[in-house]
């Protein structure tokens, strides 16, 4: 439920952000007015940024930023202000971005649910395996399936098959360790 609400919030956030950012926009980032005017006012110390829907041929400082700062700068300061601005025309597809983000959120959610499933399943498998697990001391017994492994495979449920496979892997790892550490040989 928590992830469903998170997905709804993300989708709603994208819907709200559509009004702020369009697929095609002109974005200008300029220095603070204090860098041009040499004034130390608190109102002129922040960088200026403005986003508009101007066409590509009008995406420049004179069209986008000068109307915003015309009352605060004189003509000579405006000539010094505009070369320091960086105006870029951006064309992007926010619909594709939106769907990619939603897919990534769903994949992460599915992986988290799968991880929780495995965390819950692990104690059940270990409890069942530890209750029936016998350590093999004879090497011939390791290669022949015993009555316990036969009964587990006959039942046919998923938990028993997984625990049977786990037992087989544990025996193989134990045999490999014995060969490498005790006999100093490798299995083929």
Overview of this protein structure:
This protein has 188 residues and is mainly α. The protein contains 9 helices and 3 strands, in the order H-E-H-E-H-H-H-E-H-H-H-H. It has helices spanning 2-17, 34-37, 61-64, 66-69, 75-81, 94-132, 139-143, 147-155, 158-183, and strands spanning 24-30, 48-52, 86-91. The radius of gyration is 34 Å and the shape is elongated. It comes from Dendroctonus ponderosae. It holds the Pfam family Tmemb_9. The chain crosses the membrane at residues 96-121. This is TMEM9 family protein.
How many helical stretches? 9
Strand content: 5-15%
Pattern of helices and strands:
HEHEHHHEHHHH
* DSSP, total strands: 3
Distance between the termini: 50 Å
Secondary-structure-derived class: mainly alpha
Output the radius of gyration.
34 Å
Helix content: 55-70%
Signal peptide: 1-19
Organism: Dendroctonus ponderosae (Mountain pine beetle)
Protein name: TMEM9 family protein
Transmembrane segments: 96-121
Layout of secondary structure:
Blueprint (H helix, E strand, L loop, with lengths): L1 H16 L6 E7 L3 H4 L10 E5 L8 H4 L1 H4 L5 H7 L4 E6 L2 H39 L6 H5 L3 H9 L2 H26 L5
Antiparallel strand pairs: 1-2, 1-3
List keywords for this structure.
188 residues, mainly alpha, 3-stranded antiparallel β-sheet, 9 helices, transmembrane, TMEM9 family protein, transmembrane helix, membrane, TMEM9/TMEM9B
How would you summarize what this structure contains?
With 188 residues, this protein is mainly alpha-helical.
């Amino acid at each position: 439920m928590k992830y469903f609400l998170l997905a709804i919030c993300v989708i709603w956030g994208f819907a709200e952000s559509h009004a702020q950012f369009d697929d095609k926009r002109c974005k200008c980032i300029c220095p603070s007015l204090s860098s041009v005017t040499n004034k130390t006012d608190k109102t002129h110390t922040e960088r200026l940024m403005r986003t508009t829907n101007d066409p590509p041929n009008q995406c420049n400082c004179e069209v986008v930023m000068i109307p915003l700062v015309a009352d605060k700068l004189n003509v000579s300061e405006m000539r010094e202000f505009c070369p320091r601005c960086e105006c870029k025309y951006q064309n992007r597809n926010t619909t594709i971005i939106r769907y990619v983000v939603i897919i990534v959120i769903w994949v992460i959610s599915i992986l988290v649910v799968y991880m929780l499933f495995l965390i819950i399943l692990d104690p059940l498998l270990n409890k069942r395996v530890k209750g029936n697990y016998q350590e093999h001391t004879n090497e011939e017994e390791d290669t022949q399936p015993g009555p316990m492994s036969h009964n587990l495979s006959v039942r046919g449920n998923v938990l028993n098959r997984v625990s049977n496979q786990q037992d087989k892997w544990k025996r193989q790892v134990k045999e490999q360790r014995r060969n490498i550490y005790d006999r100093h040989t490798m299995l083929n």
